[in-house]
Amino acid sequence: MGEQSYVKFPQEVIDEYAALGVDLQALFSAGHLGTRMGVQITEASADRVVGTMPVEGNTQPYGLLHGGASAVLAETLGSVGSMLHGGSSKIAVGVDLNCTHHRGARSGLVTGVATPVHRGRTTATYEIVISDEEGRRVCTARLTCLLRDARPGDGPHVRPAD
User: Contact, 94 vs 56, CB < 8 A?
Assistant: First the structure.
């Protein structure tokens, strides 16, 4: 659990980041928190980001998937979509996240699918639907990210200053 699997990227994204010497697997991973929670991103483009997370290890005291765990999955997927929309010259910073929890999940994997609601020059908003293994909606979330210009030191996706 926790190891990043291969993510399917559009060829133009692979080419853009390869030209900058960027490791896409590291850039579009779920980070340390997502790794601890077992988040795996399986598909990533500005139009659709898909990822999974195990329920086991991410539960609240009643044995149900923790709402905060759903929020982590949602923010991860929406942020990846926002980063892909913004391109290599921008970084995406979450500024608003809301989650509606529809039903509990006690076991298995949940799958999140993020799709754009708005993609502008300075903000991007994604709806994230999280479902259980039977396809039942567990959570609906919406994430808005600020897209700001990347600066040296912002992270692994920024090339060193010339």
Answer: no
Q: Is 75 a residue of the active site? A: yes
The predicted-structure confidence for 100-149, as pLDDT tens digits, reads as follows 999 999 999 999 999 999 999 999 999 999 999 999 999 999 999 999 99
Strand order in the sheet with 109-119: 40-45, 48-54, 109-119, 123-131, 137-149, 90-101
pLDDT tens, position by position, 10-36: 777 777 777 776 666 666 666 789 889
Question: What is this structure's pTM?
Answer: 0.84
Q: Look up tokens 């995406």; give the residue.
A: 92
List % helix, strand, coil for the chain (3-state, nearest 5). Answer: 25, 40, 40
Over the Cα atoms of the chain, what is R_g? Answer: 15
Q: Which residue is it, tokens 């990347």? A: 150
Q: Tell me the torsion sign for CA atoms 123, 73, 17, 45.
A: negative
Q: Which of 43, 75, 127, 134 is catalytic?
A: 75
φ/ψ region of 84 (left if φ > 0, alpha if ψ in -120 to 50, else beta) reads alpha
Please check whether residue 48 is in contact with residue 115, taking contact to mean a CB–CB distance below 8 angstroms. yes
How much of the chain exceeds pLDDT 70, in percent?
Answer: 81
